[in-house]
């Protein structure tokens, strides 16, 4: 299998590592966009163009033989999935990312959704809450600067941004949805800041599982680790950025041979 991941930066790492753990025989193409990141402040049309460029670069790097394209980013999924599917499906399945509000709400208690400032105010997130958590108290927590601090791997800034968000999270929440894939990379630090009382919900494992379902495949972690990892930086062959090595999924993927 040849699977591409398209995102502006290292937010893709947790989903890519989850897929690698499930299928170590799959070839992964990590298409990042350092020349134009972050995507969040860009217009929807600009995000669409960046997502398409990243997917096309991965498609070319795979010799036009991709089996699936994964968009492990909420912003890119909201704006880019329609255009990606129009260009690549049905030949190449395209899998997006949705904040896991539904499973978090299934606990039945108050929920907090940690997301970027823009996403926390978006109609998209409000619609998800209305659809999957009707009747539950849900707090939208705008995590100012957290994704940016994680992307640059500055520990003091990460801790400060987590503390800021934790202060704005009600103490009685049963579940906290990590509505930005960057946040997965510091999940343990987020849990510690919240006192370990709330369950954290992330999308990485679910997206990896959905990708395999779309391909008609099953998880097989016992397979020989024959898959390679190809990294692209705005279409150019590259290695993982240094900041990726500050996080466990980054070090795991860095240890995988490149072709």
TrEMBL record:
UniProt protein name: Glutamate racemase
UniProt cross-references to InterPro entries, sorted A to Z: Asp/Glu/hydantoin_racemase, Asp/Glu_race, Asp/Glu_racemase_AS_1
SUPFAM superfamilies hit by this protein: Aspartate/glutamate racemase (SSF53681)
Keywords: Isomerase
Highest taxon listed in the record's lineage: Bacteria
Keyword Isomerase listed: yes
Gene Ontology MF terms: glutamate racemase activity
GO biological process terms held by the UniProt record: peptidoglycan biosynthetic process
E.C. numbers: 5.1.1.3
Pfam families: Asp_Glu_race
Signal peptide: none
Coiled coil: none
Gene3D superfamilies with a match to the protein in the record: 3.40.50.1860
EC class (word): isomerase
